[in-house]
Task: inverse folding
């Protein structure tokens, strides 16, 4: 038996402890009592022992791996090494020391709460060995030193009851409790072997299920092929030829070796060909529908029809008409500029050389230029009064001219009322005479220069400009020389789409439409244009074909046929007429032949595959049966072994729980109850063999703590004798009453005389009581007050 206990302990820079060491031999004491107020390091000492033995501190958890801290939880000073040394001995002649060390941090960095991997672990033959004598140690070797016990798993189950989590095991689910102590039953190897076999069986069963599914799918396909081959019989193979070799991307069914993977793919190809057959059978209807579509487009574009009616006949003469229109506008502009009211105001408004070039009559441009230049020079010399009087006379002349024009064209206007003062004259002639007399009167105010200017204008008009004005009036009075501006705008717009109009005329000829009777010859927009266009449109409508609504524009088949016409025949009727219905029917037969031949090969392959799959299924079924029997044998053997071990724990647990708890409403002692199925897969704690409720459901917190301590002590009694000779309990008084505490003291002293018990409490009276009970019966005890001794030492 190993039963190693603690002999010496040394702690430096761990948590709140600066430096702590004991010179005495702790292995001489049955009870080591840690007392003193809370918060002065009792639990820290337990943490140090746990860290050395298990490599971690269970109660320090990492809630979030991403969370780090600037302050080190495990070291008091990060710039110093953290060292924990504990010497263990077996009470005979063997001792060794385990040392944990976290070296000082030279570069500041953030740490996680559970960075236990930063600790180095060493084995020391002697407690005071130098560093050169240290032997590097890992957790596996530590456990080997204590007899191959899994300390990381069983330390908190057999040896150590924590202050905060002394009910942790009991509060686990029944299945989790059993998992926690599964290795106690020494069936780990058998469980692993059974798991391997079970995993293998699971894989075989998966493969078996897949094989059965494959067989079913193969059989369904086999039956379907058998039915098709029976119906179709032998197919006669014909030659291959492509129906649409001009297509850049050939159709899937118009190649020599079409890929037909299933009946659906074949049916899809056949359906596409049958739509083509339907198209060819209704090709005339489709072409007529296309014609109706064109007619509808023409009717909807009424503005274009108007342009054709108005301008089609004159488009060839557009250049001549354009030249006449420009000449008309230019002559009108010259006439306005040469009018006396305009020209006398600004004689330089017109370029005489350009005038000579623009007119079809000969003028003396040199003489005209000399007179105009003289007039311009004289105008600069004229006095202000003369200018004003002259301007007044000019304005009166303009008014008189407008008045004469207005009264001559509108007979209802009184031509006897003066337009200047509103005076009524006896007749029109006297009114005009009075205006001229007033003009002559005002002219008497002209100075010599102004009179000269007037004389020059009179000579210029009489000798030269009146001839030009007369020519312009004569040219513009001829209707042949006048182009209606609105018509010319429409003609100009039509000229930009001359090709489209020419194509429309040809289209009308192809429809046997007599467009000539609607086209206008005159260069004007007739008042009855709407009527003419309406008649033309109605005649176009008469060219529409009467078709079944399914095949006409917008019908069910028209859109499909339009796509076929475009994709297969490039919108060309001649190409569509080359393909015959028989060619398409032969193409369907060719596809059926390919499909039938492929099915024959697939039928034979399926037949062979089904045979192979059946053999595979039979082999897998046999293996599954054999593995199931093996797993059942494992289950029976493991169950029997577990039940035997459970009985080993049951009696001491019942005794210990009865002694510690003593009094509660349902009797004395607690039983361990297995699952109702008889399998040792769960653990429940019940008051008797009849009860089914777990004790955790009705025990008080103090009773639950006592129950956990009882279970731990039972496990230690049965399974902890060959490893560690330790029992560590951190402050059980936190949740136990005096009766439970007294009972626990008696139990520890009497049932575990060979164990080294390390117990802590924050109550001095409890500490004295427990030490008294041990000392009274000859047990050695050692008191360590953390407030008094730990901080004095450190």
Result:
């Amino acid at each position: 038996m190993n039963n190693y206990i603690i002999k010496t302990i040394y702690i430096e820079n761990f948590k709140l402890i600066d430096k702590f060491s004991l010179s005495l031999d702790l292995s001489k004491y049955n009870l080591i009592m840690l007392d003193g107020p809370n918060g002065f390091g009792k639990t820290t000492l337990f943490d140090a022992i746990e860290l050395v033995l298990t490599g971690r501190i269970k109660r320090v958890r990492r809630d979030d791996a991403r969370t780090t801290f600037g302050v080190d939880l495990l070291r008091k000073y990060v710039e110093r090494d953290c060292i924990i040394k504990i010497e263990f001995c077996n009470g005979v002649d063997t001792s060794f020391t385990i040392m944990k060390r976290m070296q000082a941090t030279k570069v500041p960095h953030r740490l996680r709460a559970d960075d236990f991997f930063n600790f180095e672990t060493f084995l020391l033959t002697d407690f005071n060995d130098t560093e050169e004598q240290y032997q590097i140690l890992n957790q596996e070797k530590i456990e080997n030193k204590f007899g191959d016990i899994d300390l990381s798993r069983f330390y908190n189950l057999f040896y150590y009851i924590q202050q905060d989590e002394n009910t942790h095991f009991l509060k686990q689910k029944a299945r989790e409790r059993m998992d926690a102590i599964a290795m106690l039953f020494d069936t780990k190897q058998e469980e692993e072997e059974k798991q391997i076999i079970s995993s293998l069986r699971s894989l075989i069963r998966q493969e078996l299920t897949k094989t059965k599914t494959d067989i079913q799918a193969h059989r369904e396909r086999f039956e379907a092929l058998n039915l098709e081959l029976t119906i179709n019989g032998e197919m006669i193979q014909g030659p291959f030829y492509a129906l649409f070799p001009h297509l850049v991307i050939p159709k899937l069914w118009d190649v020599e070796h079409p890929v037909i993977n299933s009946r659906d793919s074949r049916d899809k190809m056949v359906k596409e060909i049958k739509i083509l057959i339907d198209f060819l059978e209704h090709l005339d209807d489709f072409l007529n529908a296309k014609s109706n579509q064109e007619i509808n487009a023409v009717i909807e574009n009424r503005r274009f029809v108007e342009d054709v009616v108005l301008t089609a006949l004159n488009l060839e003469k557009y250049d001549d008409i354009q030249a006449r229109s420009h000449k008309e506008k230019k002559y009108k502009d010259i006439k306005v500029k040469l009018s006396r009211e305009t020209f006398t105001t600004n004689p330089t408004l017109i370029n005489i050389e350009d005038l000579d070039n623009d007119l079809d009559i000969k003028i003396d441009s040199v003489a005209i230029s000399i007179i105009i230049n003289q007039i311009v020079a004289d105008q600069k010399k004229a006095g202000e009064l003369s200018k004003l009087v002259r301007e007044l006379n000019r304005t009166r002349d303009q008014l008189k001219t407008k008045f004469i024009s207005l009264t001559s064209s509108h007979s209802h206007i009184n031509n006897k009322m003066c337009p200047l003062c509103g005076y009524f004259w006896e007749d029109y002639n006297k009114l005009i005479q009075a205006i001229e007399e007033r003009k002559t009167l005002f002219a008497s105010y002209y100075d010599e220069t102004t009179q000269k200017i007037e004389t020059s204008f009179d000579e210029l008009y009489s000798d030269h400009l009146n001839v030009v004005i007369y020519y312009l009036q004569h040219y513009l009075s001829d209707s042949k020389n006048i182009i209606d501006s609105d018509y010319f705008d429409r003609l100009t717009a039509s000229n930009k789409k001359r090709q489209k109009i020419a194509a429309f005329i040809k289209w009308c000829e192809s429809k046997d439409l007599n467009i000539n009777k609607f086209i206008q010859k005159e260069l004007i927009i007739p008042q009855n244009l709407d009527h003419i266009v309406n008649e033309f449109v109605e005649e176009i409508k008469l060219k529409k074909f009467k078709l079944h609504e399914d095949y006409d524009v917008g019908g069910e088949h028209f859109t499909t046929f339009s796509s076929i016409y475009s994709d297969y025949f490039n919108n060309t009727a001649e190409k569509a007429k080359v393909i015959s219905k028989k060619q398409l029917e032969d193409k369907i037969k060719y596809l059926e032949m390919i499909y039938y031949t492929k099915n024959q090969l697939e039928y034979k392959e399926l037949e062979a595959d089904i045979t192979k799959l059946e053999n595979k299924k039979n082999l897998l079924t046999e293996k599954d049966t054999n593995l199931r029997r093996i797993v059942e044998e494992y289950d029976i053997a493991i169950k029997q072994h577990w039940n035997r071990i459970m009985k080993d724990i049951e009696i001491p647990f019942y005794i210990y729980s009865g002694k510690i708890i003593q009094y509660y409403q349902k009797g004395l002692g607690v039983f361990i109850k297995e699952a109702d199925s008889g399998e040792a897969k769960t653990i429940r704690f019940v008051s008797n063999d009849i009860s089914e409720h777990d004790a955790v459901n009705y025990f008080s917190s103090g009773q639950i703590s006592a129950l956990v301590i009882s279970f731990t002590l039972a496990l230690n009694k049965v399974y902890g004798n060959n490893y560690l000779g330790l029992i560590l309990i951190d402050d059980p008084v936190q949740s136990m009453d005096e009766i439970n505490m007294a009972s626990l003291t008696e139990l520890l002293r009497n049932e575990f005389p060979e164990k080294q018990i390390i117990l802590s409490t924050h109550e001095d009276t409890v500490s004295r009581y427990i030490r008294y009970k041990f000392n009274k019966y000859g047990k050695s005890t050692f008191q360590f007050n953390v407030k008094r001794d730990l901080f004095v030492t450190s």
About this structure: The radius of gyration is 61 Å. The domain at 1-149+723-794 is CATH 3.40.50.300 (Rossmann fold).
